[in-house]
What does this fold into?
Amino acid sequence: MSFFNVLDILGTIAFAISGALSAMNRKLDLFGIFIIAFVTSIGGGTIRDVLIGNTPVSWMENTINLYLIGCVTIVAIIFRNKLDYLKKSLFLFDTIGLGVFTIIGVETGIMAGLEPIVSIALGAMTGCFGGVLRDILCNEIPVIFRKEIYATASIAGGVCFMVLYTLNITQNSIYIITTLLIISIRLLVVKYKVSLPSFTVQK
Amino acid sequence: MSFFNVLDILGTIAFAISGALSAMNRKLDLFGIFIIAFVTSIGGGTIRDVLIGNTPVSWMENTINLYLIGCVTIVAIIFRNKLDYLKKSLFLFDTIGLGVFTIIGVETGIMAGLEPIVSIALGAMTGCFGGVLRDILCNEIPVIFRKEIYATASIAGGVCFMVLYTLNITQNSIYIITTLLIISIRLLVVKYKVSLPSFTVQK
Amino acid sequence: MSFFNVLDILGTIAFAISGALSAMNRKLDLFGIFIIAFVTSIGGGTIRDVLIGNTPVSWMENTINLYLIGCVTIVAIIFRNKLDYLKKSLFLFDTIGLGVFTIIGVETGIMAGLEPIVSIALGAMTGCFGGVLRDILCNEIPVIFRKEIYATASIAGGVCFMVLYTLNITQNSIYIITTLLIISIRLLVVKYKVSLPSFTVQK
It folds into this structure.
């Protein structure tokens, strides 16, 4: 198992916990908690696979993640009142997840022979759309459309990946630089409370 | 036409009526009522087909259900104030629909050579996700995430189906036992007002 | 570039602007505005492609539209307070878009050898479901389920297209008649404030 796999697992765990927490905050029942945890964790990759025709989608062929998410959700339910102490670790895991999932999405696009702009879009989808589905199912406007430079970090990472890929740099260097870039953007953004502008239409 | 087809038709009818009723309760217009009826009835199977790559999706190849749903919706609109008298029959039809759709989903997964856990997930999707789409389109948190042992009955049925299938029991016996199990769970749950626990996060 | 392509571009522009406006009205940030503009413009065609298995979906193979939507969105943000003056042109563009997208959807169904009723449904999806996704992402009940004869105009156009197609009329005549029909219905409906009935269920 490579270092990249370890990061992938950390990301999957963080996304599952974020889904389970959202569901508990909305007072969903046990089944709802599991579904939201799954959807948050594998939803982005599923949308990507469906759009490019990579079916049956990944989680059906590689079911180990399902068991992982199931266990994580049980742990998250048991320790639901302790998760606040882990806030910082969870934020870091989530950001790692964003980085890893973005890379997996961009690579999938390149493998499928799609144009760079499409590959970057696939990276952002893989990284961000699990959270979009989570928010839709919880009947909220997706948080990434409202605040935080989250998707923007993913897109910046995707652009960085494509540039480095064109320069023929070794795969491992691309992985590391892209992941570090996404993590740095997220950390800086949260530290300095940067957010994208929104625009008001005068009535 | 087999006995199973008859059950399938009853389920499709019940799901269409439940969709049409939801739409009328939300004061949607005629078009909205039809769309929600269709989505509730064929939405679960459509998501299943898209995820495993079974395209064009089933309702495009087998359009008889579209006409059936259209007619049922018209009848539901005309008799909208009488449907209360049919509440018990509708509940039974809906539960039959859940059972039949679950079985169709699990079988589709087995045919596609997918792992047992994935087949069970496909069964639950086929049975429950039409209702999830209905609730999302009506701007509500899906009811199956909040109360009632609905999806859980479907999952229990899926597990039962897989176990019996492994034991090499005849297809008809599997169908009957699985459907009866799902119906029994639903009836018991509603009678004794059982619901899954939800968990509060202390702030 | 044919006359039809010009209409397609007008439609894409109108849909992108309508998405960007919705997003700004909901106070979404810059990223949210772009995503909603994209989804409104290409969402209907994407759902169509996914359901019939035409993957990778159209916008991945024909990326020119992505750049067009991106530019239109920037212009819409800059001139957001001037768009009111363009209300009538935008309404016309939007209606042209509905007509063109409907035709593209119906034709896609015919090419894929699907039944007429399915082709008409694909036309309505291509024309209307971008707006449905826009409203779901903005956490609203889709406007086309609640008021305005919008989807109905699309369906009428689809039926008209299928009838003319069966009569072996030249492609250009079919395009023009169908588009004119859809535009006329929309104009008449808005002028005379016609709307589909909704039905109340007595409690």
